[in-house]
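hey so u asked for the seq, here:
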Amino acid sequence: MNGLSTENLTIRFGGHVAVNAVTCQFAPGTLTAIVGPNGAGKTTYFNLISGQLKATAGRVRLGGRDLSDLPPSARTRAGLGRAFQLTNLFPNLSVLENVRLAVQATRHAGLSLLSIWSDHRALTRRAHEILEAVALAERQHMPVASLPHGDQRKLEVALLMALDPQVYMFDEPTAGMSHDEAPVILNLIRALKQDKSKTILLVEHKMDVVRELADRIIVLTNGTLVADGEPAEVIASPVVQQAYLGVAPGQETAA
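ran it, structure tokens below
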């Protein structure tokens, strides 16, 4: 398979099974929304895929390659892209410098990120293109540490775009953003969907966003995969509506 897959992926914390033998395939050209109640294991599942957590059992594969024993940095180089946390960045460098370093990491694998760039203009041009796309061009010279929260989320997407991964992983990308800021991120995800060679995974609580963006929904609860299918089918399922989306049978799922 060319896409991403997990096979019996499991993690235990003491006696608690946080993710329970989840087997799932994610194909290129598809945006899969991962939903479920708080504590269902959605972010833990993401952490197992991207390597932030080491699985107790099971495998992660991308394009047929087994990534299970690789650290997060090696999984990123293999094509798994997860939205950055700002603690992983250079907070005292500017927004532009951070994006330019991410572009350089893709084009010059193995070289020091702080080395002299032979194609400085090309790197800077690409960084500017990405910053325009995420509406951060006007803040390009600001240090990352001084960005407001909404702009931090935009920068996470910018860095992911700079790495040009095979798989984009977004964990509640609009969380904490204002009503006016959120559409910028959602429009970026819509644009990324147009590239049918990419696989997109989205953890999201807002069902209106899920309805609009998702080609497929999987539902986790207590770390177990309990539903998988087309959005209308999964959302309409009585067991999912009652137990996992918190609404009564026949009630419209609006939030």
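The mean pLDDT is 86. The radius of gyration is 19 Å.
lmk if thats what u needed
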